[in-house]
Design a protein that fits this description.
By secondary structure, this protein is an alpha+beta fold. It has one domain: 3-Layer(aba) Sandwich (Aminopeptidase), CATH 3.40.630.30. It has 4 helices and 8 strands; from the N terminus they run E-H-H-E-E-E-H-E-H-E-E-E. Strands 1, 2, 3, 4, 5, 6, 7 and 8 form an 8-stranded mixed β-sheet that branches. A hairpin with a 2-residue loop joins strand 3 and strand 4. The two termini are 21 Å apart.
Length: 175
């Protein structure tokens, strides 16, 4: 049986090993890493999937922004969603994303979520779309149709995605 727990109770080395197994050791060169920068993931929105004491999946969320000149429109970047290669297709990633959306709603952080991912999958199951992201840029290569967002405060303006440099996200409720 899979149990979802806060990611910060998991050994960070185990998380890094899972991320390497899921995405390869060159994962740090991906555009998503450039977007979120060297910041810290949002603890209230980062979870691990554990089965019989073994880490089989993880998800992290990051405070980022759509930056246009000096203005920052705050966003929460969902991902990476990592699942052990031998457990992919078992619904673990889907459970992790659903848990993040639940926690984001409980903490008032669900009004501007974004991710880079498969539009058919994330649209069908979670309501993400590229409808408001047409004017967004990224600091590295990205297929435009994979820039997805959901929420009432998603900016429909031009800008480049990057780490949020303003204050941290206020979390008003615990999960």
């Amino acid at each position: 049986m899979i149990t979802l727990v806060p990611l910060d109770v998991i050994n960070p080395t185990a998380v890094e090993m899972l991320l390497d197994a899921a995405f390869g050791p060159d994962r740090f060169t991906r555009t998503a890493y450039m977007i979120r920068g060297t910041g810290t993931p949002i603890a209230a929105l980062s979870f691990a999937a554990v089965e019989d004491g073994v880490l089989v999946g993880s998800i992290q969320c990051w405070p980022i922004a759509l930056i246009d000149d000096d203005r920052q429109s705050p966003l929460v970047m969902v991902g990476p969603v990592a699942v052990s290669p031998n457990r992919q297709g078992d619904g673990i990633g889907r459970s992790l994303v659903a848990r993040v959306l639940e926690a984001a709603a409980a903490n008032g952080l669900d009004d501007a979520l974004m991710l880079i991912g498969d539009p058919d999958y994330y649209g069908r199951f979670f309501g993400f779309s590229a409808e408001r992201t047409a004017f967004w840029d990224a600091p590295g290569p990205v297929e435009r149709h994979r820039l997805l967002a959901r929420g009432t405060a998603v900016p429909d303006t031009a800008g480049i995605l990057g780490p949020r440099t303003a204050k941290t996200i206020p979390v008003t409720a615990s999960v």
